[in-house]
Amino acid sequence: MVRTYGRVYVECQSDYDYEEVTEALQCVFGISGICPVKETGIVSPEELAATVTQFVLDEYPDGTHTFKMHTRRSNKNYPLDSQEMNAELGHALLEASDRFRVDVHTPEIMVTVEIREDRICMYSHVIPGPGGLPVGVGGKSMLLLSGGIDSPVAGYMIAKRGVKIDAVYFNAPPYTSERALQKVIDLASQIARYTGTIWLHNINFTDIQLYIYEKCPHEELTIIMRRYMMRIAEYLARQNECLGLITGESIGQVASQTLTALGVTGEVCTLPVFRPLIGFDKEEIVTVSKKIGTFETSILPYEDCCTIFVAKHPVTRPRLDVIKRHEENLADKIDELFEEAIRTDEILIVDKNGSRVVKHREDPMPGSMEQENG
Ligand code: ATP
Ligand code: MG
């Protein structure tokens, strides 16, 4: 790979599959367009005209076409300037074949020739890239990744703005199955095609859920549970140098996502909470989900921890003071349960090819985490 101003040259070292390379590049944020180029060294204008002519004839062997030559010359030592080169190249093509006609306003074929310091590249196809910014330039954030449609899309969208992703999944064994966890790993693996490696924290949330269930009004279960998810996610975020949290919430989608509920949920965090889907309709989210390849996995029917403990009539307009008062019912044991959930965090490293566990439930926390807990 060679980088120059505004361009990254990707050179294939051996035989390669054109589709495969294109697909891989279409997952790299920061690429706005992919141009399969033919390349030559620095040659004379006459030689270049012959090469470009042959390139166009090979690319478009049949039919008649309108075209425009578009030379970009960053190599100011080259004997002809861009305008002169355009004339030279156009002339050569017209001489070589009567299947081509110039149209400078709406050409069917735009032949771009870039004359750089060390090489000359020509191309006529631009395949759209994913756009965005290279992952990592914007720091890192912690994605609350459930098995649903929304959160993988939310992670994708924030990663697209150059943010590296860690993820946390709240699991409720034995109420949720291994297959539900596998579904989340698969989703992480699918978005890792775009985001690169993801550290996935698999948090055992069962005891906290059961305790809330025992001590708090059932119509407030979801909201209180969500507040504890945010608290744990924020704790993990801080330990892992994440600068914010990401959720797949969207206004009005379910009872826990009314404006009031979002306010009460977010109140526990001091890190910023990014909700890239906040103004999206479900159909719009589904469209992105299909585009990035997570939809089919997301709709698999495995249970989620939220759906198991859900009340028939959850509050849609929770009052913060009331919720806080009911959370006081948890005072006896919640700190201990919180610490236990963090201590038994299972950490998986997920990439596009799969996952491997790097910390089992009973392993001590690696490095700095240990100290912070102690
Ligand atoms: P999704 O489709 O992403 O599952 P949802 O429509 O089911 O979202 P909720 O269940 O209210 O909505 O969850 C809202 C957000 O909270 C999710 O998008 C996700 O970011 C986070 N979340 C919910 N459940 C979990 C979980 N079990 N583990 C991690 N994050 C979760
Ligand atoms: Mg869901």
Strand count, sense and barrel status of the largest sheet are: 7 strands, mixed
Q: Determine Rg (CA atoms, Å).
A: 27 Å
CATH class of the largest domain: Alpha Beta
Spatial shape: elongated
Order of helices and strands: EEHEEHEHEEEEEHEHEHHEHEHHHHHEEH
CATH architecture call of the largest domain: 3-Layer(aba) Sandwich
Hetero groups in this structure are: adenosine-5'-triphosphate, magnesium ion
Percent in strands? 15-25%
The tally of beta strands, per DSSP, is 16
Continuous helix count: 14
Average pLDDT reading: 93
CATH fold name of the largest domain? Rossmann fold
- CATH superfamily label of the largest domain: HUPs
Helix vs. strand class = alpha/beta
What is the terminal-to-terminal distance? Answer: 45 Å
Please, could you describe this protein's structure?
With 374 residues, the protein is α/β, with parallel strands linked by helices. It is 40% helix and 19% strand. The protein has a seven-stranded mixed beta sheet with strand order 14-13-10-11-12-15-16, sandwiched between helices. The longest helix is centred in the middle third of the chain and has 19 residues, at 221-239. The chain starts with a strand and ends with a helix. The model is unreliable at 368-374 (pLDDT under 50). The protein binds adenosine-5'-triphosphate and magnesium ion (MG). Residues 144-146, 148-151, 168-170, 229, 247-249, 253-254, 256-257, 304-306 line the site of adenosine-5'-triphosphate. Residues 144-146, 148-151, 168-170, 229, 247-249, 253-254, 256-257, 304-306 line the site of adenosine-5'-triphosphate (ATP).
